[in-house]
Amino acid sequence: MSACCEWLAQPGSGAFLPRAATPSWRRCVAHNPVTSSSQAGPIESSLVLAADDPKQLAGFYGLLLDSTPQPGLSARHWRLPLPSGGRLEIYAPSSRRPRPRQHGRLGICATRAAGAQPALQVLHDWRLQLLARGAAELEPVRLEPFGAEAWMADPEGNPFLLLVQGGTS
């Protein structure tokens, strides 16, 4: 069960708050019960990523996604607007409720157009930039009919995919 599902309903508001709620916590819109449109605001979506060092990981993903990290709802929470909409929420889990690391099947895919350059060269340059910031290679680079791709891990071991589309041979 995710940390989000462990949030409790706030009576009368339709919002969910964490068990150890503080005024700085936000609503859990993903698990909000269906309410009439006159009672609830619009549904928002975001990706959440637990981190040992949220500020450092926000800087890494800022570079990866070409997005400026923004302070979140606490000193242990950062937000990054995603280029195609929504946002990435990076936070440190409660020290009172530690979460074991899990290997899932969800990962961020960062896509870039090669333009007039060879897709493999664009991918190579992008990888070098991320490796210098603490990323690690998970699989060798592959050239596929849809572009060049590489699976990597961020500095805390979370997988992500780099995809460069188009380009010259």
Helix-strand topology string? EEEHEEEEHEEEE
Q: Number of helical segments?
A: 2
Mean pLDDT figure: 78
Shape from CA axes?
A: globular
Q: Describe the biggest sheet? A: 5 strands, mixed
Q: Would you identify the regions where 5 or more consecutive residues have pLDDT less than 50?
A: 1-37
Give the C-alpha Rg: 18 Å
Secondary-structure content class:
alpha+beta
Helix content: 10-25%
* E-strand count: 11
Distance between the termini: 46 Å
- Provide the β-strand percentage band: 25-35%
Helix/strand layout:
Layout: E1 8-9, E2 16-17, E3 46-50, H1 54-65, E4 70-71, E5 77-81, E6 87-91, E7 108-113, H2 119-131, E8 136-137, E9 142-144, E10 147-153, E11 159-165
Parallel strand pairs: 3-6, 7-11
Antiparallel strand pairs: 1-2, 4-5, 5-6, 8-10, 9-10, 10-11
